[in-house]
Amino acid sequence: MVDTVELEAAAFRRLLRHLNEARTDVQNIDLMILAGFCRNCLADWYREAAQAAGEPMDKEQAREAIYGMPFAEWKQRHQAEATPEQLAAFEAARQRHG
């Protein structure tokens, strides 16, 4: 029988590959509007899990683990400025979901 943790880890790695290789066009703000989380949220959750396991990790280390490169490099390559429409949709989603 396969360990559930192995399956979860494989699914997580596939999610990261999908976001960071296949769908670099999907902006974090779009993820936040539609799903309520983004790559930065994943990095925060990753860091929290590492720290809970006794592994020191800072924000930049966690983001590099999630983005597959330093965050500054990701931003330069893939992150566009949020449009007024995105900002308005983000604010509306934030108000709806707290």
TrEMBL record:
Domain SMc04008-like stretches: 26-91
InterPro entries: SMc04008-like_domain, SMc04008-like_sf
Tree of life domain: Bacteria
Pfam families in alphabetical order: DUF1244
Identification of the protein by name: Deoxycytidine triphosphate deaminase
Source organism of the structure: Pseudoxanthomonas daejeonensis
Lineage, top ranks: Bacteria, Pseudomonadati, Pseudomonadota, Gammaproteobacteria, Lysobacterales
